[in-house]
Amino acid sequence: MTAYWNSYLFVVIFVVLAIALAVVALTLGKWLRPAHPSREKLEPYESGVEPVGDARVQYNARYYLFALLFVVFDVEILFLYPWAVAFHELGLFGLVEALIFMAMLVIGLVYAWRKKVLEWK
């Protein structure tokens, strides 16, 4: 147990310093910041132009479906990269597994295509 006291001491010093620095930064920030907000400072700013209209915009659901398909195929690449790195070590079994994985994704792509998710009409 005595061999770890040096490590414990560093952890305690780190935690105490982190808390102290956070308290000092928040306290100084509250004292030093300007506390006189004017009407101009409270207005939203859009590249020097007065904002016009409502800030909320409704998007079509197709955008979300398209983004979801992008994420699915992006994650596919993440799964295929380690397979490609270890291709020689995996052999035929690894090839069959990757082909099954890609076939399942192609089936999903065909399904999305037939449901006309990829069309922008």
TrEMBL record:
* Topology of the protein relative to the lipid bilayer: Multi-pass membrane protein
Mind telling me which GO cellular component terms the entry cites?
NADH dehydrogenase complex; plasma membrane
Protein keywords: Cell membrane, Membrane, NAD, Quinone, Translocase, Transmembrane, Transmembrane helix, Transport
KW Cytoplasm (keyword) present: no
Q: Which reaction does it catalyse?
A: a quinone + NADH + 5 H(+)(in) = a quinol + NAD(+) + 4 H(+)(out)
Where is this gene product found?
Cell membrane; Membrane
Q: Which InterPro entries match?
A: NAD(P)H_OxRDtase_bac/plastid, NADH_UbQ/plastoQ_OxRdtase_su3, NDAH_ubi_oxred_su3_sf
Source organism, top-level taxon: Bacteria
Give the transmembrane ranges. 6-29, 63-84, 90-113
* Keyword Cell membrane attached: yes
Q: Which NCBIfam families match?
A: PRK07756.1 (NF005839)
Entry similarity comment: Belongs to the complex I subunit 3 family.
Q: What is the protein's known function?
A: NDH-1 shuttles electrons from NADH, via FMN and iron-sulfur (Fe-S) centers, to quinones in the respiratory chain. The immediate electron acceptor for the enzyme in this species is believed to be a menaquinone. Couples the redox reaction to proton translocation (for every two electrons transferred, four hydrogen ions are translocated across the cytoplasmic membrane), and thus conserves the redox energy in a proton gradient.
Q: Which protein, by its recorded name, is this?
A: NADH-quinone oxidoreductase subunit A
**Natural source organism:** Kyrpidia tusciae (strain DSM 2912 / NBRC 15312 / T2)
According to the entry, what is the taxonomic lineage of the organism? Bacteria, Bacillati, Bacillota, Bacilli, Bacillales
What gene is it encoded by? nuoA
